[in-house]
C-alpha cells in the first residue's frame, strides 16, 4: 500500500475520525492514526469519548438512574419491586459492551468511506511527513499534503493527589470500580466530578465532592446552578464549595484527604478518591517542536480561525486547541476543517455550543447566562418555566427543575437558554437551533409544541418572558 496521502489525521477521537471520514467523502486519500489501547491492550478508535469518557459514563449513569428510580419512584407508580439486587459486574459488562459496539462501528465507517485506519503512534517529522509506529513496533513514514493534529486531552494529574490507579483514580478509573465504595471523595465539582459522583452516590456510596471555587457551576446561569445544587444535595451528594485540597495520601485500605475550608483545615478519609479537576492537551511525543508547530503557555496547539498551525500544511482540531473540551465541538471542527480543505466555505458557531451534565435531573445550557448577558451590556428580559407545571413531567414523576430563557429586551432575540430537569439534554437541541437561526422569543412563541411533552416547557418559558403564558403564573422580570 502506498504511504502517500492527501490527508493524514493523527488522533482517532471525536475530532479526528469524523475529520478523516469527511475528508475521504470529499475525495481525499485519507489515513487516520490512533494510539488508544484499552485495559486489555486491545486497540480501538473513538478516543477517550467512546472508550473512557462520554459513552461508558452515560451507560453507568443510565444504569444507576434506573436503580435509583426503582428505589425512590416505583412505589409512586404503584409498582412494588421488593428488595433490589445490584450486580456491579453485569453493569460494568454492559457498559463495556456499549463502548465496543460503537468503537467497532468506526472501523466499519472507515471501511465504507475508504479511510485507512492505522492503530499505533503518529509523530510529526516536518516537511509533510508523519512517522507511524504500530503497536507491534513496526515503523514507516507517511507523506501527506495536509496533516491534522487531533490528539485530544488527558486528565490533569495533581501533584498533591497523584493517581495510583487503585485508591486515587482519574475519570477512567472511576468508571471501572468492581464494587461500590462505602465512602467516596471527589476533587472537583465540574461536569465530570458531578456526573461520576452521581453514579456512585445513587448506587450507595456516601459521596463528598470538594470544590475549590466558592460558586457551584460558575459557567451555568446562577439561578439554574443554585437550583441544581439543591436537587443534588437533596439526593445525598455532599458538595462542599470553597474547599481547597492540600494533600491526599493513599494507604492500603483508604485515602486520607486534607483540605482547607473557611480558613479551617480539615481531614476526611475515603475508600476511593476521584480527581476530576479538568483536562490538559495531549501532545506527548507528537514532534510539534520538530515540525515547527507552536504551542501556547498551557500546551495547546496554536491555530488561526481556519485551524492552521504555525507549520505549513499542518492543522489542529478538538481538545488539543482548547476552548470547550466537548466531543461535539471536536466533531464540528473536524468536519469543518475537512470541508475547508476541499474549498468549501464553512465555520463553527462558537456562540451556540451546547453543554450537558448527565445527572438526574440533567443540567443543560447554550449561549449566555443572565450574568454574562448583562456583563456584555444587554438589557435582558427573563422567563423561567418550572417543570412542576408540566403534565408530562408530572406523569413521569420527574417534575423537578426549570427552563430559563435569557433574551435581549430591545431586539427580542434569544441570547441563552439554561435548564435543569428531566431529559433537558434532548430539549437543548431546540435552544441551539434557536440561537443558530437568531430566533426571537416571538418566533418560538408562534411555534406549536406537542401536548403533553417536556418540550412544552420550553415554549412556556418563552411565553413567560413577555408575560404571555396561559399555563403558568406570569412574573415578568426585566
Strand proportion, as a percent range, falls in 25-35%
Residues in helix, %: 25-40%
Order of the strands making up the biggest sheet? 1-2-3-4-5
Give the number of DSSP strands: 21
Oligomer: single chain
Computed CA radius of gyration, to the nearest angstrom: 24 Å
Mean pLDDT over the residues? 96
User: Uncertain spans, ≥5 residues at pLDDT below 50?
Assistant: none
Summed up, the helix count is: 13
Q: So what's the overall shape?
A: globular
If you had to describe this structure to a student in words, what would you say it looks like?
There is one protein chain. The chain has 478 residues and is α/β, with parallel strands linked by helices. It is built from 13 helices and 21 strands. Strands 1-2-3-4-5 form a 5-stranded mixed beta barrel. A 5-stranded parallel sheet has the order 7-14-8-9-10, covered by helices on one side. Strands 17-18-21-20-19 form a 5-stranded antiparallel sheet, with helices on both faces. A hairpin with a 5-residue loop joins β20 and β21. The longest helix is centred in the N-terminal third of the chain and has 26 residues. The model has no long low-confidence stretch (mean pLDDT 96).
